[in-house]
Write a structure and sequence with these properties.
By secondary structure, this protein is an alpha+beta fold. The chain is about 40% helix and about 10% strand.
Length: about 110
Amino acid sequence: PQLLAYLKDDLWRKNPARSNGLARKIGAAAGQALLYPVESNQVFLSLGAEGKKRLRDAGFEFHDWGSASTGFARFVVSWDQAEGEVAALCRAPSLSPNPETGTALHPRRR
């Protein structure tokens, strides 16, 4: 029964499409902090240690990516993630581009 419910009405396609779309919103808001193109429900950002601290202090949860010294973070968007949470993250000063420079808090590193 559970598998049939997942197949009914294309739920198997709608859930990942929703989470991937929300991840793309985060990627777009991150500007130059985006490390890789957003191709799934995961977003990889270069925020710096201070940027990560500010986001965590504001209540956002994410994973450190790589060694602590990189300042990289991995965000994973769930199929049932509240759109308001994603919108709040996109507006967060540590994520949003600087209006003067047009770049995020910490420039992309390659």
